[in-house]
Amino acid sequence: MKNILVIGGSYFLGRIFVEALAPNPDYRLVVVNRGNRPLGLEGVQEIVCDRNNTTHLRENLPSLSWDGVVDFCGYTPKDVRNVVLALPRGSVGHYIFISTTSVYAPTFLLPIRENGTKLSGPQPELGPAAGYGFQKWLAEQTVSTHARQLGFPCTCLRPSIIYGPYNYAPRERYFFDLIDRNQIVILPDNELALFQFVSVWDVAEIITLSMGNPETFGKAFNLSAEELISYKRLVEVLEAITERQIPTRTMPVPEIDARRIPLPFPLDSHLIYSGDLVRQTLGFPYMSFTTGMQKTYRWYRQTTTHSE
């Protein structure tokens, strides 16, 4: 049996990962989080603890050797350091850090690959999220440094835009809600912005395939399906999966900004990443965008109260 320590794991990506592995008798899952969203899954041990309370974490973790440590909620170097130092030396078989493609500096060299230039500081233009990508990059470096010093392998996974069940970010749900209410979907009047997605199921499976796999040790991987999606293409997919004609209206980007219409994806810039390395390394086929969105919409309909 493989012992897997999950840091976070109660919501969105972490939850899908835990739900997928929980029925498998080959895994023993221990989930550490603050207890705000208990999983209540059979066979999953949950430990309520703030990862930054290293004393509490050290005292409450089972005395096990961990075949895999999967860190879903490390956002800063301190977050990583506190977990790594709370684990007995020699107890970590493989540390997988969930990062983000936001670690990359803006560039016109597309698609962005794993060796692309990283951020050198915060991005003030992003407002409250100014430090997110830079801190994630610093956290990646902290994982790598501790892995070298303490002698355990690590892997950093950088998803692009994740979608799927339990998504707390107002991404696909923003459009599902408009469609459900038969409201007009505002789109930018330019069709230049292209972006990429990865389903939450794909990310969860990639994590599982990476665990203990020497081919992933000491490496970072973009997780991004091949399809390039524009707002117009997104609407086409939504019409196909909902079997409804969606009313739309185009609007200049400055007007969208002025009206604070919360479109969740880029309006006038690309977010294009190569996810080929992990596909080649693991022999992994990404789920098609239409299939993934269809599964997501089905879950949305099953879990949301709708007014007629």
Low-confidence stretches: none
Instruction: Please outline the major beta sheet.
Output: 7 strands, parallel
> What structural class do helix, strand and pairing data support?
alpha/beta
| SSE string, helices as H and strands as E | EHEEHEHEHEEHEEHEHEHHH
Radius of gyration: 20 Å
Question: Number of helical segments?
Answer: 10
- What best-fitting shape do the alpha-carbon axes yield? globular
The CA-CA distance between the termini, in Å, is: 49 Å
| Record field, number of beta strands | 11
Arithmetic mean pLDDT: 94
> Strand order, biggest sheet?
3-2-1-4-5-6-10
Strand coverage percent: 15-25%
Helix content: 25-40%
Overview of the molecule:
By secondary structure, the chain is of the alpha/beta class. Helices cover 34% and strands 17% of the residues. The chain is built from ten helices and eleven strands. It has helices at 13-21, 54-60, 77-86, 132-150, 172-180, 200-210, 231-242, 253-258, 276-282, 289-303; strands at 2-7, 27-33, 44-48, 68-71, 95-98, 154-159, 161-163, 185-188, 197-199, 219-223, 248-251. A seven-stranded parallel β-sheet has the order 3-2-1-4-5-6-10, sandwiched between helices. The longest helix is centred in the middle third of the chain and has 19 residues, at 132-150. The radius of gyration is 20 Å and the shape is globular. The N and C termini lie far apart (49 Å). The model has no long low-confidence stretch (mean pLDDT 94).
